[in-house]
Amino acid sequence: MQFLALLGQAAVACSLTYRSASSMLSPSKSAFPIDDAKNRVLMKYLGHLAEKDPLYGYLRYDILPQLGVNGASPDFRVYRIQASNHVYLYEDRGSRTLIIGKFFSGLSDRAPEAACHHMEREFNNLQHLRNIGFNGYPHYIARPLGRNAGVNCVLIEEFCHGIPLDYFIIKAIREGAREALFQKLTALAYFLATLHNRTATGDRVDVNRDCSYFDRIMDQLKNWGHISWNEAEEFHQMKEQWREKEFMGEDNQVLVHGDVTPTNILFGDGLWVIAIDLERMKPADRVFDVGRVAGEIKHFFMQYAGDKWLAEPFIGHFLWEYACHFPDRDSAFRSITRRVPFHLGMTLLRIARNSWITGEYRRWLLDEARETLR
């Protein structure tokens, strides 16, 4: 694995403007940019929330007052947002207030007790990170406004405006906007390093937990007919070789975001980073997040540019910028990059599970994962 154009990259502040810092701190009051391609929220308008719906009363009497909205009966327009859970945006037409409702119940593979557990966990994760300082510039976590197990285990959050990471990656690929992507990766590296360093524990990384996650991905690939049993066995053998490497457990555990996909990281002006979807936050190796970002960048360049090597300057820049938040940057960089291939390869396997991946591209992802893990 190569990391090109690396040591000469310096941290820079982003000059790309989108929304002011003041609007970022009161995101629920901004008008929803339905046609704004930069936000690229994939959604479908569903109509109005009926007053007889149990959610209506909860939003009116428990949620809106927290945002300073009182008085007249609200009229909520409802949009469904594409997500792994049932996620909806509610816009009160009178006050123009926006809120997000994430429902954990009603998923085919989740029992009611598990749904409430996931709801509570994400609510607590959001609260915890805000309580330790992720509630203003430059690092922001969406404010949880409430949760209600009696309404399909719904979690209510403020709506945060921002431009997702995938917008900058695609723009770099299609329009040559490389500098903007470098700047946003600098901001993301700063955010993740702050999250990881602020939550570091005295416990060593348990590589067995990462290997168990690897096994779950392989089981899904096999069960869904995407790889043969022989190929799965080859991947398992490579995983075991990584398990035996001493440096895989050399770091201490930190809290990781757990799902740092390009749609879960939003950017504003300068170094503004807003993280959403913290359901999978957990103690783990910091490289679980770092390798995920590297893998996602590689995937985008493979899929949209048809050239994996074009991702290398951006991956290298991101890793070098992350390492700058340690007393010994060179030592941190060496330690991190030793472990990145395992998590990058696992990310490519994770992406290959998706039903929207074509057979030809899935094969490329699998082959690239194998090459990375060797």
What does this structure look like?
The radius of gyration is 21 Å and the shape is globular. Residues 1-40 have low confidence and may be disordered. It has eleven helices and 13 strands. Strands 1-2-3-4-8-7 form a six-stranded antiparallel β-sheet, sandwiched between helices. A five-stranded mixed β-sheet has the order 5-6-12-11-9. The chain folds into two domains: 23-158, no CATH class; 163-373, Aminoglycoside 3'-phosphotransferase, Chain: A, domain 2 (Alpha-Beta Complex), CATH 3.90.1200.10. The protein has 374 residues and is an alpha+beta fold. Helix 8 packs across helix 10. Strand 2 (76-81) and strand 3 (86-92) form a beta hairpin. Helices cover 45% and strands 15% of the residues.
Topology:
Layout: H1 21-25, E1 43-48, H2 54-63, E2 76-81, E3 86-92, E4 97-103, H3 112-131, E5 135-136, E6 139-141, E7 144-148, E8 154-158, E9 163-164, H4 165-175, H5 178-198, H6 207-223, H7 229-243, E10 254-256, E11 265-267, E12 273-275, E13 282-284, H8 287-305, H9 312-323, H10 329-352, H11 359-373
CATH topology assignment of the largest domain = Aminoglycoside 3'-phosphotransferase, Chain: A, domain 2
The structural domain count equals 2
Beta fraction of the residues? Answer: 5-15%
How would you sum up the major sheet? Answer: 6 strands, antiparallel
Extract low-pLDDT stretches.
Answer: 1-40
Query: How would you name the CATH homologous superfamily of the largest domain?
Result: Aminoglycoside phosphotransferase (APH), C-terminal lobe
Radius of gyration: 21 Å
Order of helices and strands: HEHEEEHEEEEEHHHHEEEEHHHH
Distance between the termini: 10 Å
